[in-house]
């Protein structure tokens, strides 16, 4: 009688605990930042990509359109999402800002949109944002990884 009661008790207890979501073991997954906390949300950070656009001789170029885009590719197609866009100032400087999961898929698109007005016509260029150049400017907490600044200078070639 006692054995039958123990089996019944164990079966009910097992069913109850499994309905509540209790597990018997847990291996904590790791990434480059340490243990991955399993909760709802998405890790993200603030990224500022800035730099200077110059011609081949090193002269700053004003009025060049710089755009920050995120590019996701899969086996079927390529998805491009525009995040920020500015024109370079008189010193050829630009600064683009975004919130993203990672800088790995970020690209800077550089286009001459005003023709001869900025000292000549220049070829467009696309740069991969180099996440290795990221400098952390603000500490993060929880899902927020902090703020990072990346400098990407661009040297444009003139159209022939």
Question: Mean pLDDT, rounded to whole units?
Answer: 82
Helix content: 10-25%
The value of Rg in angstroms is: 26 Å
Low-confidence stretches: none
Beta content comes to over 45%
Q: Count all strands and give the number.
A: 11
Query: What is the CATH homology-level superfamily of the largest domain?
Result: Immunoglobulins
Summarize the structure.
By secondary structure, the protein is mainly beta. It has one helix at residues 2-20; strands spanning 30-31, 34-35, 44-55, 64-73, 78-87, 93-100, 106-112, 125-128, 135-141, 144-151, 154-156.
SSE topology:
Elements: H1 2-20, E1 30-31, E2 34-35, E3 44-55, E4 64-73, E5 78-87, E6 93-100, E7 106-112, E8 125-128, E9 135-141, E10 144-151, E11 154-156
Parallel strand pairs: 3-10, 3-11
Antiparallel strand pairs: 1-2, 3-6, 4-5, 4-7, 7-8, 9-10
Verbal overview:
By secondary structure, this protein is mainly beta. It has 2 domains: 2-35, no CATH class; 44-156, Immunoglobulins (Immunoglobulin-like). Helices cover 12% and strands 46% of the residues. A hairpin with a 4-residue loop joins strand 4 and strand 5. The model has no long low-confidence stretch (mean pLDDT 82).
Any key phrases for this structure?
single chain, 160 residues, mainly beta, Immunoglobulin-like, 2 domains, 5-stranded mixed sheet, 4-stranded antiparallel sheet, 1 helix, 12% helix
